[in-house]
């Protein structure tokens, strides 16, 4: 008898444990169960509804009357509303005026900073510095959480290999591994160790999935890729975000294998929940349930809601599809109550984890807001991050750094005085007025000693070349000319695809004419995508890729231009010679007819090289490094493989510098073809002039694994080449054989 009671208790105990989640304690789970028992179906659907406020618009529609919806419990989450007091008032309505008083969760696109703006994520990825990426996200979270926010729609972890796609600026670029390590750093930075810490926010891995594979780089366009590419290239950063503990996922706008992501059971349930065990909730992207009608997979909104709910979407962003249809769909047995309950439970768990049931106003403190936003520390971090994100693409005759003793400097281009363009897209509450322009950064660095002349030259877009003669005249009188060129910040980001990735307007012509003066020409680029720089590369003495560097961008650029800091960034994405080479990325397959100039019938173009202008991983600094001969030893047992690789790296130049030592592998023969290079590890190495360091790497079976022909994940025995160097063309090689 006692024994059976004990067994029963044990079973019950285990059962209670099972009901817990990574986000909640047993007591909280019970509170959620009790709360849900009191909720009407309409109130449950309310928790599954997210509306934008009228504060900011980040999509095609705006709703009126969302305050009324809060009051009636028809909405459980709000986005595009921020600041401690504004959100406090909305929270008050939800907590004090609704029947059950369930707190709202407030989301916003805090992608690279809230008010203190860090470089765009593509630029941050160019630092290859996961420690600072995590720190930057931590600061962004601290500011956001002080401004009444609980949830950021970041990180964007879409692998992006098409420079035409405006959203390449939002992620970590083209590579799977770099994408994974950046995803981990950003999730950890935003969420910290504990969501209950009121200085953290819950992160959102987006856009699930394969949004970056939009055909022809046109935003929202069709995606058609194999299950193998999906799993090997596009999904791993999401899996890493999940392993790092990300609390929410956002669906993408695109279809995957004929089914839009927001109605894709294979993605949202088979893979995300069942295979990966995701605990947290899935939100759609903006009106993407509604968009399944034009996609042509459902005939009306009711069907769209049914498809989304049954696929595994927990929260409907802005589309009001659940709001208008879900109660009926449940009543008609088209969506089960269990599915709704599951979604609501996931959402309430995150609200618990954020501490909102303890104190719904814990993120709404005016003093906290005053003390934690745009602080001197945060601005200093933004400057450091911006410096690390800059990539020196060319530096003939050591044109850079310029001596601060320079007498006359011409600064050309309207981007040089633009504060707004330092921000880049998705700049949350970042303000142009708070940014240091390139010209101001230069003037600050030079002080009163030098004569700095600014002229606009040509506008960024348009055909007006009338300013060129004056710019040329100024260049003739100057000791050096800095041309700030590129794209306006609105030319990348969402809904900002381009077919032409050359420098827009007459900027290339301006640069060529400035070069003809014989004065050294330094081109500083502001842009959110790889540009085809073929037209100007021979007409610039130095080229510094500055992306959109954020709040302290002007100072960071000056730090590098005048040598207070040595550039260390490396391209996280390939820069093509021309748009016709796209898609172009380093870890391509070899083909059966790899390039051979002596043979017409090999894989190449008649009118263009196969090589990019600047490869993935590339970036110069003010010193040089040499690489010794790599050595590798393999230790193999029945169930593990360790490859220890070492290489000597020497700073062969005259000043200190940082090298990003990159390790690539090639699996020579596989049951399916393997890329010619795969980045598997890298290390940031800071060396004084003349200093040498032995850099060690350790690879495991996981690093050699891939989706084999039978779709199982694992390694195959055989020969592997390992390449180490300072970009994806690395030539230092060592080969190993795995048995
Ligand atoms: C649409 C974008 O695709 C997504 O990234 C963003 O988070 C939402 N709008 C909300 O602004």
3D architecture notes:
- Among the domains are: 385-574, 3-Layer(aba) Sandwich (Rossmann fold), CATH 3.40.50; 625-738, Immunoglobulins (Immunoglobulin-like).
- Helices cover 30% and strands 18% of the residues.
- It is an alpha/beta fold and 739 residues long.
- The protein has 21 helices and 26 strands.
- 1-deoxynojirimycin (NOJ) binds at residues 58-59, 109, 153, 206, 285-286, 494.
What structural keywords apply?
binds 1-deoxynojirimycin, Immunoglobulin-like, 6-stranded mixed β-sheet, 26 strands, 5-stranded parallel β-sheet, alpha/beta, Rossmann fold, 21 helices, 739 residues
Brief overview, please?
The protein is an alpha/beta fold and 739 residues long. It is built from 21 helices and 26 strands. The strands form seven sheets. A six-stranded mixed β-sheet has the order 11-16-15-14-12-13, sandwiched between helices. Strands 4-3-2-1-10 form a five-stranded parallel β-sheet.
């Amino acid at each position: 008898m006692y024994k059976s009671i004990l067994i029963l208790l044990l079973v019950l105990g285990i059962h209670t444990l099972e009901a817990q989640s990574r986000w909640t304690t047993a007591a909280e789970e019970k509170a959620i169960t009790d709360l849900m028992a009191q909720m009407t179906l309409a109130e449950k659907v309310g928790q599954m509804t997210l509306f934008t406020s009228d504060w900011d618009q980040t999509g095609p529609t705006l709703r009126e009357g969302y305050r009324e919806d809060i009051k009636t419990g028809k909405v459980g989450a709000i986005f595009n509303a921020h600041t401690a007091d504004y959100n406090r008032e909305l929270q008050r309505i939800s907590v004090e005026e609704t029947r059950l008083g369930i707190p709202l969760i407030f989301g916003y696109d805090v992608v690279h900073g809230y008010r203190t703006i860090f470089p765009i994520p593509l630029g941050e990825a160019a630092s290859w510095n996961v420690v600072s990426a995590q720190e930057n996200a931590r600061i962004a979270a601290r500011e956001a959480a002080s401004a009444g926010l609980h949830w950021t729609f970041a990180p964007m972890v879409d692998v992006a290999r098409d420079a035409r796609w405006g959203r390449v600026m939002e992620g970590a670029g083209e590579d799977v591994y770099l994408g994974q390590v950046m995803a981990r750093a950003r999730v950890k930075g935003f969420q910290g160790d504990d969501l209950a810490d009121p200085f953290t926010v819950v992160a959102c891995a987006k856009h699930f999935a394969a949004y970056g594979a939009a055909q022809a780089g046109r935003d929202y366009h069709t995606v058609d890729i194999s299950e193998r590419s999906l799993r090997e290239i596009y999904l791993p950063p999401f899996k890493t975000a999940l392993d790092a503990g990300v609390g929410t996922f956002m669906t993408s706008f695109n279809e995957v294998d004929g089914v839009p992501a927001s109605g894709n059971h294979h993605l949202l349930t088979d893979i995300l929940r069942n295979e990966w065990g995701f605990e947290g909730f899935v939100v759609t992207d903006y009106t993407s349930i509604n968009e399944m009608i034009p996609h042509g997979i459902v005939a009306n909104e009711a069907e769209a809601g049914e498809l989304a709910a049954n696929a595994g979407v927990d929260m409907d962003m802005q589309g009001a599809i659940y709001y208008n249809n879900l109660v009926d769909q449940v009543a008609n047995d088209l969506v089960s109550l269990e599915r709704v309950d599951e979604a609501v439970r996931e959402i309430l768990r995150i609200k618990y984890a954020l501490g909102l049931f303890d104190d719904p106003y814990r993120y709404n403190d005016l003093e906290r807001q005053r003390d934690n936003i745009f602080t001197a520390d945060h601005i200093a971090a933004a400057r450091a991050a911006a410096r690390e994100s800059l990539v020196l693409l060319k530096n003939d005759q050591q044109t850079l750094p310029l001596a601060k003793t320079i007498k006359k400097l011409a600064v050309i281009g309207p981007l040089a005085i633009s504060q707004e363009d330092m921000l880049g897209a998705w700049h949350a509450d970042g303000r142009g007025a708070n940014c240091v322009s390139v010209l101001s950064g230069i003037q600050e660095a030079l002080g009163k000693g030098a004569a700095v002349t600014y002229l606009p030259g040509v506008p960024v877009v348009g055909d007006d070349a009338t300013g060129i003669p004056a710019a040329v005249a100024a260049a003739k009188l100057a000791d050096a000319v800095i041309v700030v060129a590129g794209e306006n910040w609105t030319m990348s980001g969402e809904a900002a695809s381009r077919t032409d990735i050359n420098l827009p307007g007459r900027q290339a012509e301006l640069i060529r004419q400035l070069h003809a003066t014989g004065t050294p020409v330094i081109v500083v680029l502001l842009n959110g995508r790889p540009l085809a720089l073929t037209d100007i590369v021979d007409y610039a003495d130095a080229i510094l890729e500055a992306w959109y560097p954020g709040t302290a961008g002007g100072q960071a650029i000056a730090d590098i231009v005048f040598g207070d800091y040595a550039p260390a960034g490396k391209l996280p994405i390939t820069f093509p010679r021309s748009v016709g080479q796209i898609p172009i990325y380093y870890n391509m397959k070899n083909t059966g007819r790899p390039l051979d100039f002596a043979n017409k019938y090999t894989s190449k173009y008649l009118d263009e090289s196969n090589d990019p202008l600047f490869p993935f991983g590339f970036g110069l600094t003010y010193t040089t490094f040499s690489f010794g001969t790599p050595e590798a030893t393999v230790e193999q047992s029945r169930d593990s493989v360790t490859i220890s690789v070492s290489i000597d790296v020497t700073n062969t130049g005259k000043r200190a510098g940082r090298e990003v030592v990159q390790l690539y592998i090639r699996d020579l023969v596989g049951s399916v073809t393997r890329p010619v290079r795969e980045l598997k590890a890298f290390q940031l190495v800071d060396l004084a002039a003349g200093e040498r360091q032995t850099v060690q790497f350790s690879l495991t079976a996981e690093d050699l694994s891939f989706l084999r022909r039978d779709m199982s994940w694992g390694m195959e025995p055989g020969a592997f080449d390992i390449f180490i160097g300072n970009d994806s063309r690395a030539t230092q090689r060592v080969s190993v054989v795995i048995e």
